[in-house]
Amino acid sequence: xxxxxxxxxxxxxxxxxxxxxxxxxxxxxxxxxxxxxxxxxxxxxxxxxxxxxxxxxxxxxxxxxxxxxxxxxxxxxxxxxxxxxxxxxxxxxxxxxxxxxxxxxxxxxxxxxxxxxxxxxxxxxxxxxxxxxxxxxxxxxxxxxxxxxxxxxxxxxxxxxxxxxxxxxxxxxxxxxxxxxxxxxxxxxxxxxxxxxxxxxxxxxxxxxxxxxxxxxxxxxxxxxxxxxxxxxxxxxxxxxxxxxxxxxxxxxxxxxxxxxxxxxxxxxxxxxxxxxxxxxxxxxxxxxxxxxxxxxxxxxxxxxxxxxxxxxxxxxxxxxxxxxxxxxxxxxxxxxxxxxxxxxxxxxxxxxxxxxxxxxxxxxxxxxxxxxxxxxxxxxxxxxxxxxxxxxxxxxxxxxxxxxxxxxxxxxxxxxxxxxxxxxxxxxxxxxxxxxxxxxxxxxxxxxxxxxxxxxxxxxxxxxxxxxxxxxxxxxxxxxxxxxxxxxxxxxxxxxxxxxxxxxxxxxxxxxxxx
Length: 516
Fold this sequence. Notes:
Elements: H1 13-23, E1 27-29, E2 36-38, H2 40-59, E3 63-64, E4 70-72, H3 73-77, H4 80-86, E5 91-95, E6 98-101, E7 104-107, E8 112-119, H5 124-134, E9 143-152, E10 166-176, H6 179-199, E11 205-209, E12 221-228, E13 234-244, H7 246-251, E14 254-256, E15 262-264, E16 266-273, H8 275-284, E17 301-305, H9 313-328, E18 331-332, E19 335-336, E20 339-341, H10 348-358, E21 362-366, H11 368-372, E22 375-380, E23 394-397, H12 398-426, E24 428-429, H13 435-442, E25 458-463, H14 468-480, E26 484-485, E27 488-489, E28 508-513
Parallel strand pairs: 3-9, 17-20, 17-21, 24-25
Antiparallel strand pairs: 1-2, 4-8, 5-8, 6-7, 9-10, 10-16, 11-12, 11-27, 12-13, 13-16, 14-15, 18-19, 21-22, 22-23, 25-28, 26-28
Helix pairs in contact: 2-6
């Protein structure tokens, strides 16, 4: 049986993922180690993600700005906890000029920078320096900004979209008068991310608070949204950090309060990145390739003319172009329908498979009979095959197809979410009560973290929220099984049984699983 890819999820999930990225023409490895070239189809997905998320961020009162790519080392050094968390990942610029010596270009020894510059791994320190200048009075608060940028974190093991040395993201930074306002902001933006992931990406997530050992360096509290991939692993799809007054103290972000005294501001930061695209691939893709939710598909309906180098080809082309124009006048998911006629000089079957692999939600094939009979023949990418794995092609009256196209796209969006949500809900175990049971359930970790293993999903279990050395012991025991604590979901219900790790009374439940 023919599938769109030469790799399957069941045989090797990692190979399948790479095949989707390649065959869907999303991205490719660049000449720079660990970096990627995002190709037009992949970048088109990112543009749609960016546009919708930017709209939501601005709707909550934030304004966009931009800060330098380079950060003085002294700024980073002010934050001991921050430096410790990112030190091994930082790229450093030490010279400002090259010179040819003995016929070889090298950094000019006479052009060493007075102070090394860090290539932006995140912007808390340099934005904190600006907040120090911008915040003078309680009247300047809250200060709500966001920037769309690239960042660099020197990764040892990279994978396109999921973990690269350079990636694209947005990072929000805010300053507030009180701890309560800072915490409210942190949770507000977490909810923006949760709703965006579920309604725009059709990717169900669980929002919760990270344990102490998984917090952002220097944060009082870190919250995340966690998504379950088709191999059962967790993907941290977005984070929101309550920084308290930690960064404000280091950067001297103080304001004159209403009583005339000086108070430290409470700051937050939050962000999502191109990693979300990797999450979409692993949440929705199948053995034929990518399946894109219509909200982020650069082409929602692709029309493929079936041409035979015969006189009737002109009629087919005219029919396709008219169909495209009528579809584009419609609306789906609160936006004009993105319809496209594929006029590439290639075989019709090759073009169809190209769009199947790319994940176009609806693929239309128009031949002479369709054109003369005012018909439309199409495939839905969310329901490409029947129970016998045969491809499904549906015929419909042209007028009815145009009238129902918007509703069909909305139905596809909903069906992708429902499928992923059912998988998430069905694969969280809540009946494991001891660490020994946890170890038996997950089994020994594979030597190769990318190797295909039995699907396990996650465990949700009570824990006593240990800290310090006790938490380090928990982390070490989990690491031996290549497991991590994901987050403590916000939807806690209680009462709680004994802690899975310590045997002490539980205070909440936490998610445990293998992760990207």
